[in-house]
C-alpha cells in the first residue's frame, strides 16, 4: 500500500505541477469568465435595441402600426410608402433595416411577404399577419352585412388541449450537459493515461520501476492520480462559474443550450448520485482499456491507431446518449443501456428522463461491476506483459495472447 501511495503522489504531483495542466486550466478558467462576462454585457446592450422592420401595405385592410408597437418587445414597426419598396430592399440588403414586410392583395385576400437578410425576426410577421386577418374579417363582415352572432360562431376555433403523460422536454438541457461532459472527460483523460504509459515505456522508466513495484500497482496509481487531477481541474473550472454567478454575470433562471433551457430543479440528489456512480464506473472501465493499449505501444506516435476501437466505443455511447434525448424508450437506447461500454452514458440519460426504473438501474450497475472485474483482469494481464514488450505496431492478436498468458 505504501508503494501504491508513493506512486500515486508522484503522478499526482507531476500532473498538477505540469505546464500543460496549469496553462490549460488557466485558459479555460479565463475563457469561462470571459464568456459569461461578454454574454452579460451583450444582453444588457441588446435589451434596449429593437429590430427595425418596415411595412408597405398596398391593400385596403388597415394595420394600426402604433397599436402593434405597444405589444412588441423586440421589434419596432415603421410605415413605408408604396413606391419605396426598392429603397427598403436595398436597406435590408445593406443591414440598415432588419426587415421589410410587403402586404399585397392576392385574389382579394391580403398576403404577407417577409423580406430579411440572414436571420428572421420571429415576433413581427405573426403579429402583423394576425392584425391583417382581423381587419380583413371585419371588413368582410361589414360589406356582406353578416349577423354578428353568426360571424362569431363561424370564427370560433377548435379548442386543443394537451395532456402529456410524461414530459421529458425540460430534461434536455441537463442531460446534454452531463452526457457531453462525461464523454469529453473519459475520452480526454483516458487518452492522457495511454499517452503517459506509452511515454514511460518509451523512455525505459518501466525497466527501472518493475523490479521494485508491481506493474499492476503502477497502472492503478496512474489511473487514480489522473482522475484526482481531473477532479481538481473541474473544481477550479466550476469556481469560475461560481464567481460569474456571484458577480451577477450568470442567471440560473436563463441557462440554456442550443435553445433548450437547463432546468436546475432536475438536479435532485438522486440524479447527482446516479451521475457520480455511472461516471466513476465508466471512467474506470475505459481507463483500464486505455492503460492496456498504452502498455502495448512502444512509441507514442503509434497510439492513434491502437486507440481507435476504444474511441469508437465511447463515440457510440455518446451518439446513442444523444438519441436518448429525443426518445429515451427506443429499442436501441434500451438495449444499449445494458451494454457496459454504453450504459454509463445511456442509462444515466434514461434516469434523468424518468424512463429507467429501479430494477434497470440495479441490473446495469451490476453488469458494470462484473464487466469491471473482467476488464480489470484482462487489462492487468496485458499491462503487466505489455510494458516489457517492445516491438512494432500493436496487433490485436498480440493483445489476445498477452491476455491469455499468466
From TrEMBL:
Query: Subcellular localization, per the record?
Result: Cell membrane
Q: Which domain of life is it from?
A: Bacteria
For the keyword Manganese, the answer is: no
ABC-2 type transporter transmembrane domain: which residues?
Answer: 25-375
Assign the protein's first listed, main location to one coarse class: membrane
Instruction: Please tell me whether the keyword DNA-binding is annotated for this protein.
Output: no
Q: Which UniProt keywords apply?
A: Cell membrane, Membrane, Transmembrane, Transmembrane helix
Supply the Pfam families for this chain: ABC2_membrane_3
So where does this one cross the membrane?
20-38, 174-199, 220-247, 267-287, 308-326, 332-352, 359-379
Q: How does it sit in the membrane?
A: Multi-pass membrane protein
Q: Which PANTHER family match?
A: MEMBRANE COMPONENT OF ABC TRANSPORTER YHHJ-RELATED, MULTIDRUG ABC TRANSPORTER PERMEASE YBHS-RELATED
Q: Could you identify this protein by its name? A: ABC transporter permease
This protein's species is: Fictibacillus fluitans
Q: Cite the source lineage.
A: Bacteria, Bacillati, Bacillota, Bacilli, Bacillales
Amino acid at each position: 500500500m505504501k508503494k501504491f501511495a508513493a506512486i500515486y503522489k508522484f503522478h499526482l504531483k507531476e500532473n498538477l505541477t505540469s505546464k500543460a495542466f496549469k496553462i490549460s486550466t488557466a485558459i479555460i478558467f479565463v475563457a469561462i469568465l470571459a464568456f459569461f462576462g461578454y454574454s452579460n454585457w451583450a444582453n444588457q446592450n441588446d435589451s434596449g435595441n429593437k429590430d427595425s422592420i418596415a411595412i408597405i401595405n398596398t391593400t385596403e385592410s388597415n394595420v394600426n402600426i402604433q397599436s402593434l408597437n405597444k405589444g412588441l418587445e423586440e421589434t419596432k414597426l415603421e410605415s413605408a410608402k408604396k413606391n419605396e419598396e426598392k429603397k427598403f430592399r436595398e436597406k435590408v440588403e445593406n443591414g440598415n433595416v432588419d426587415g421589410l414586410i410587403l402586404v399585397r392583395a392576392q385574389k382579394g385576400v391580403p398576403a404577407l411577404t417577409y423580406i430579411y437578410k440572414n436571420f428572421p425576426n420571429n415576433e413581427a410577421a405573426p403579429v402583423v399577419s394576425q392584425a391583417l386577418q382581423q381587419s380583413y374579417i371585419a371588413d368582410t363582415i361589414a360589406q356582406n352585412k353578416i349577423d354578428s352572432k353568426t360571424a362569431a360562431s363561424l370564427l370560433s376555433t377548435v379548442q386543443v388541449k394537451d395532456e402529456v403523460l410524461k414530459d421529458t422536454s425540460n430534461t434536455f438541457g441537463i442531460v446534454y450537459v452531463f452526457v457531453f461532459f462525461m464523454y469529453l472527460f473519459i475520452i480526454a483523460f483516458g487518452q492522457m493515461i495511454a499517452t503517459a504509459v506509452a511515454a514511460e515505456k518509451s523512455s525505459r522508466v518501466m525497466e527501472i520501476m518493475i523490479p521494485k513495484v508491481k506493474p499492476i500497482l503502477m497502472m492503478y496509481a496512474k489511473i487514480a492520480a489522473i482522475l484526482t487531477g481531473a477532479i481538481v481541474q473541474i473544481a477550479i473550472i466550476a469556481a469560475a462559474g461560481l464567481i460569474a454567478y456571484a458577480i451577477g454575470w450568470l442567471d440560473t433562471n436563463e441557462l440554456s443550450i442550443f435553445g433548450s433551457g437547463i432546468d436546475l430543479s432536475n438536479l435532485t440528489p438522486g440524479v447527482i448520485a446516479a451521475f457520480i456512480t455511472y461516471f466513476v464506473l465508466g471512467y474506470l472501465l475505459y481507463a483500464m482499456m486505455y492503460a492496456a493499449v498504452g502498455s502495448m505501444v512502444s512509441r507514442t506516435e503509434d497510439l492513434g491507431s491502437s486507440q481507435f476501437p476504444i474511441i469508437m466505443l465511447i463515440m457510440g455511447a455518446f451518439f446513442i446518449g444523444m438519441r436518448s434525448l429525443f426518445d429515451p424508450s427506443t429499442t436501441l437506447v434500451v438495449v444499449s443501456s445494458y451494454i457496459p461500454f454504453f450504459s454509463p452514458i445511456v442509462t444515466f440519460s434514461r434516469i434523468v428522463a424518468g424512463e429507467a426504473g429501479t430494477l434497470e438501474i440495479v441490473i446495469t450497475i451490476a453488469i458494470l461491476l462484473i464487466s469491471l472485474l473482467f476488464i480489470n483482469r484482462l487489462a492487468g494481464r496485458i499491462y503487466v506483459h505489455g510494458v516489457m514488450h517492445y516491438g512494432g505496431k500493436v496487433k490485436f492478436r498480440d493483445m489476445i495472447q498477452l491476455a491469455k498468458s499468466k
